[in-house]
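Would you mind giving me a polypeptide sequence along with per-residue structure tokens?
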Amino acid sequence: IISRAASYAIQRGMVVVNAIGNEGANQPGTLGAPADVEKVISVGGVNHNGSLCSFSSTGPTSDGRIKPDLVALGSGVVVPSVYGGTHDSYTTSQGTSFAAPVISGICALILQAHGKETDIDKVREQLFRYCHFTPYQQKIDNYYGRGVPDALLSCMRDNEVYLTAVDNLENPLIAAQIFDANGVSLGMTDSDGKALLSLSKNRLPLTATFNQGENKDTFNITVLPSHFKIVVSSVYKLIVKLEDKHNKSINNAIVHYKLDGMSGFAEIAADSGFAVITGTRPLAASIYITAPGFIKTDTVQRTFCSPGCTLKVQMESIPAEKFILFPTVLSKNSGKTLKFEVFSQTETMVNVSIRSVDGRSLWKERFVADQGIIKTLSFNNQLRNVTPGMYFFILQMDGKAFRKKFMVIP
């Protein structure tokens, strides 16, 4: 009776989907009615890895037709729990009766996508056309049928390409343009990183380019319909921009950075007032900067972002007060000495000299300063050529020159 009812429904244009049964796969022909009715879409069950569920019934039918037609997940299926008082929880269950509703849903989507004029034969054709074998089958057989359906391809029209674009962290790539080899736009991804493209078959094979700023990729379209998932290794950047208090770029700086998982700080040069640190994910970084003539910055924490974010750092120059000369007036006959103190953030080469007001060099010396250093100049040594008058004491370090006056009296 149930087989007659199914046949009657099919004759009147209804799509009938039925579980093949749970009588086991140990022998052929264990399927039950009405899964054996012609044009009834009979569904077997597979596990998550694609292997046949041990309980899933088998074909063929009594007249030799292959059954099931296809398979869907029949084990470990998440379903609402109908037991208990709250009815708001889920559980897992198994059986080909849980696989059949999956196929019923795909059939409903096919009808919706292709229009009400779609008949039962068109639904079956779209459903079966894009099935693919499981890893455990090599042909259409009485265990897996045609294999597992592809719901997306079954719902697409023959001239369509469905594209999903994500970065390496599975974030959707939004508003990305897709072009053909001639630069003609084929479409653009939406807020979910999806795009549905329409092409004519006479354009195949077609090479398309995906472009979203620095996220670019090329893919080939050889068949229609088709769907692609493009995974682009997005570039995550932290752009470090260096300026002084007058908003002028600082050259010859070094950006010291330490990323998550690094044991120590790495260095990158900032030759033109900025440095770019790149990665393939939003890493957290500890950063400080050193530059000739400027005080080392504090260490700050920043995170990379895509396509890039900017860390603007204003560095403080080493002020002239860090260079101290004393006394500024001294008597040559008193036996007193001239002292100078210089401060450097890092070990650096220092050039010092004494010049007369007309520019003559009377003394010079070169040495390495490490942090703070004090030197003493005596009239018996460094100042022996100095006579009473006005002089310039000049200090050069880190690309900068500092100048102070001092006077020698009799």
The chain has four domains: 2-155, 160-232, 236-314, 320-409. The two ends are 132 Å apart (CA to CA). The domain at 320-409 is CATH 2.60.40.1930 (Immunoglobulin-like).
